[in-house]
Amino acid sequence: MDVTSSSPAQNRSPTGPGSNPAPRLQEAGIDVTAYDPPALTPPIWGAIEERVLAVRGYDNRWELACALPQRCGQRLEAGESAEQVLAWLRHSAVSRLLQDRRSVRMAVIDSSLPLPLVERVATLQRRLGRWSPGRLRRAERDRALVQCCEDWAARLAGGTPPETLLHEPVQTQVRQLRNEQWGQRSWLSRLVGRCRQAVTWTLLSSGLVYALLWVRLALLQPRSHEGDLLDALDQVTRQIPVEQRAWPLVKRFSESENSSLLARSQLLAKAALTQGPSHPNWPQAREQLAALAEFLELLVEASRKPHLGYLYRDWPQQANLLPNVQVAVSYYRWQLVWLSTSLQLLQGESHRALEQSAPDRAADMAIAALRLARLAARQDNSPTLQELGEGAILQIVDQMGQLGESGQLPISVLDRLHDALAEPQPESTPVPVDVDQILSDQLDRCYSTGENGAITRPGLELLVAESYVAGGVSPVVQWMWWPWLAQYVAGGGNPFASQVQPLGPVIAPLMIRRQAARAELQQRVAAARRKAESSDDFADFDQYLADEVTALTDTDWSRLHYSPVIATLQSSAAVLREVIAPAIDTRRRRGAEGAVAVRLALARHRQRTGVFPESLSALVPVDLPELPRDPFDGQPLRARRQGDWLILYSVGENGSDETAGWTQSNPQRPVHPQDLKLGEVNTATDPVPLPGEPRPADQVPAPQAESPRP
Q1: Would you say the pTM of this structure is higher than 0.85?
Q2: Residue 330: strand, helix, or coil
Q3: What count of Cα atoms within 13 Å lies in the side-chain half-sphere of residue 648?
Q4: CA distance 553 to 20
Q5: 20 to 30 A from 9, CA-CA: which of 108, 290, 441, 503?
Q6: Measured between alpha carbons, how far is 556 from 361 in angstroms, rounded to an integer?
Q7: pLDDT averaged over 10-residue windows placed end to end, the chain, 710 residues
Q8: Cα 312 vs. chain centroid, distance in angstroms?
Q9: Which residues fall within 8 angstroms of residue 387, CB to CB, at 6 or more apart?
């Protein structure tokens, strides 16, 4: 408290000669007439009066309080100014002890101690009273201060300058005083003190750890309705290997028969976040949000692995993966749904991160989706995964091009996207088509049996349908089938399994027809494979497939409009596309990746210079090492302007440049012999300010009419 600014005694006490400077002190029994009033100024009397009256009734402090006027007078007589005396009253140990109303069992501190030493005593008093393992008790602290002041007074009387006493650091003096007082205790007191310190430190450490955990959990909760998914991540789980963390998480999303649980969870979380904690599904949505965030991080980590074996092959295919469904079929279908949903989540998170001005996270999600799609495209054990991966790559690279053209990505992020596109990728090996297995999945179902050895209902239906096509089956035999089938359908079971055994003459011609169909299909598949491997000219690709499908369906089977057989024919025709289509799709995917690399380079050039280049050759070598090659003829990728749009295209399967003439209905799937459009860039956008030349906020350019997309 600074008594120089305002004090009741200062306002009340007169300052003229012969007046009473402190009437309340006179009433308290302190003789103030022995001092010359001009010697002690009103601020000094006010400070003394405030401290003395505060300890009235405390015998152990009254003696020290009454001695304050005398000590102040001695300091004034020694040559100190009034300001120095007020500072002494503010910093002295006696004054502070009186103000704090603590028990004082210490001798009168020598008034001849200079002000720096008095301040040092106040500092020692504060340090000794702080909480610490070596904290002294109040009586020990007072004795330590008394001893220190007496030593200083004796040394000053012996001629030691005050600077020598002030040379030693305060912390060293405090440690010495504590050690001296601690050593004077009994061994039992020291033992109890150490035990108390150990218990105190243990409780404090435990409380600090729990407090940090609580703060950590509080910070992980969504702080707002638009909270980032990363706020719900558990940092500790990231240290667990992804192979050990993937299976429990995926199994959790696989316990439902509906494989789109991930998508439904995301919708639930978004719906709850729009209303916040007031939403009835807020706790469940917050849990789902945390799981989705962890799932996204899992996908990012999985994309850095060299293979997807631990996601598709290494996990046990147990019946509890998807209950109530056959394991082989459900596991295969679930792989496709899981990969498709994962890619959709990564792409959606990339868009959301870009909307929230997080370009680095948007790039991370897009790169992870691209890597996962590429890994799926290299799964040689599954042609369906290859097809899904190739199709996903086209969508993801187009999204990466849109991210670059948004103008929100800095050059460093654009370079990251370009490096991800340029990562070396081994070519996928086409999966050999097992014709026997494909046909057996459909036609041979008529020989499948249930648990009790009875023919299953789908097999019976297919067998009855094929009996109409077999020319050697008599009407009598056909008439015998329908009552059994009606009894089977009506009864919900198969009570005539034993009667099927004598039907060898009916089944034999069907088996012969299947063998002939397999032989014919094998020949066509072998011819299609030779065409795909030996020739780079795919000009007649569409017509070739059409002719093969017509040849397959232009049989006696085409007269039968029965769904199982029609499905069999469609599966057989799809075999040919599986043989030839990968070669076409791979080249189209290469062209799309090259076009996206050009689009990113154009965005980089625009970020760097503020405008689009006049030609693609201007991108080399600063923004692009070299122009990508057309995968169909090996020439640099072509571009043509159409209005405000720059069109990137490939010559396509026919190898002929028609200067980007394509149809508006389906530009990504051109009709022969037109070219294949790979991308378009709107070059009519406003120039980007160059680095160091920010555009003034009041100079917003007028909106320009956007040219229609070609």
Answers
A1: no
A2: helix
A3: 28
A4: 128
A5: 108
A6: 58
A7: 36 41 64 60 78 62 68 78 79 54 41 64 66 55 70 76 69 63 62 78 84 70 40 40 48 45 50 55 60 65 57 39 37 60 75 81 86 76 70 84 84 88 71 53 44 44 45 43 43 41 43 58 69 59 64 49 44 59 74 88 88 87 89 85 82 72 46 63 61 41 39
A8: 24
A9: 578, 581, 582, 585
CA distance linking residue 290 with residue 339, whole number of Å: 20
Q: In this structure, how many other beta carbons lie within 10 angstroms of the beta carbon of residue 22?
A: 25
Structure token pair of residue 365: 């999600």
Place of tokens 């028990």: 103
| Domain boundaries, given as residue ranges, for the chain | 8-188, 190-216, 229-421, 435-582, 585-682
Residue 645 in 3-state DSSP?
A: strand
- Cβ neighbours for 354, distance < 8 A, ≥ 6 positions apart: 362, 403, 406, 408
Residue 281 has which token pair? Answer: 């599904």
Residue 703 is encoded by which pair of tokens?
């909106």
Pick the closest to residue 14 from 22, 6, 24 (CA basis).
Answer: 22
d(CA 5, CA 453): 106
Find the DSSP H helices in 111-241.
115-129, 138-157, 162-167, 170-183, 187-220
How far is residue 470's CA from residue 477's CA, in Å, rounded to a whole number? 11
